[in-house]
Here is the input.
Amino acid sequence: MKIKRILAAVAATAVAVSAMAVSAFAAQDASGLADGTAYLNLNKADWSEYDAEWTNAEVTGDGTYTVSATMAEPTDLGQFNALEIKNGETKFGTTYIVTVDSFKINGVEVKAGEGFTCSADGSGVTTRVNLYNEWNSPDDTATNPNGDIDQRCADGDVMSKTARLVGDMADMAGAETVEVTFTVSGLGGAAAPAEETTEAAPADEAPAADSAPTTSATTGNVPAAVMVSVMAVAGAAAVATKKRK
Here is the structure.
């Protein structure tokens, strides 16, 4: 009976972790995007799932690009939203700059502050500019795993920037369309005509690992791999317990 209780507890833990991963993954699924693709990582205020049509952009060099989302229904955006470039830190290096020029919700400009470029979760892999992130603040001493300065901006004054570009959180309620125009600098070369791709992305597909909301000291997100690892450990424990029986 004791072994059965242990197995039941392990199984319950695995189910809970799995449920947490699914419910947290409300944003665009970036797992299938090519490296260097810019996209919006948007999340609802209650972290629930939603449907949207996404327009992404392939970053090919210095220049200006636009990405957008059209929601299936009015959506209240929540505590974490960002512009990201898939594996941008790996593909382009950790010194180039992404500057948000315009941030519009329902066609209305809501950008009230200047942001900074960093890597998602400080991992030095995917490039991120926070549009609204309650768990992140400027830190000109932050470094990535390679020891490089992680947060940067065009004028070099990171501490004057913000991770919350929106002046009023109320502006993020009832979003039907979101559009972000940004400039990339420091890559050299001119951007080729952006080949934008539009696709319907059901929210029940898990997005990139760096989009799940939790309590990381750097961004408030934790890689999905952590959740998967916990599930794997739970499964291994169940097998090992059964063998001992």
Q: What stands out?
A: Helices lie at 2-24, 88-92, 224-244. Residues 54 and 69 are 5 Å apart (CA to CA). Residues 1-25, 201-245 have pLDDT under 50 and may be disordered.
